[in-house]
Amino acid sequence: MDGYSAYDPVVDGGGGVPQPPQIQQRPQLPYRQDIVPPELQMVYQRLHFSPAVRVGNTLHLSGQVGRDNNLQVVDIGDPPTEEGMERQFIQCFDNVQRILHSAGADFADVFQLETWFTDMPAQLRTFMVSFT
C-alpha cells in the first residue's frame, strides 16, 4: 500500500476488507542553527536576517555585498572605478570570512562559491585579484 488508499484488493487478497493507511515516519531533519557575528546581532534582532545557517555539517551563507560594519555600501565611485570595485570585493570577502569564523570555519572549508557580476569582462580580473 502507498499509505493513502484505504482499500487495495491486490494487497488484501480481494476480500473487500479495507486496510488502515500506513503511517510513514519522516526522517528527522538535521539541527538548524543561525550564525550571526556579534557585529550583526542588531540586524538579526530587527530584521531576523541571518547571514548564515548551519544545517547538520553544512554551512549556507546568505548573499554578501560590499557593506562595511556600519552597513554602509563601500563606495565604488561614480562612475565605478577598478579601485572602488576592488574595495567592495575585499569588503565582501572580509564579511564572508567574519561569518565563517563565527561558525568555526574558514575559507579552506568552502567548497562552492557562486558569484554574480553586472559586467563580467570588466570585473572578473579585479575580483580574482581581490580573492587571492
TrEMBL record:
SUPFAM superfamilies: YjgF-like. Pfam families: Ribonuc_L-PSP. One of its GO terms (molecular function) is deaminase activity. GO terms for cellular component: cytosol. Residues 1-26 are annotated as: Disordered. Belongs to the RutC family. This is Uncharacterized protein.
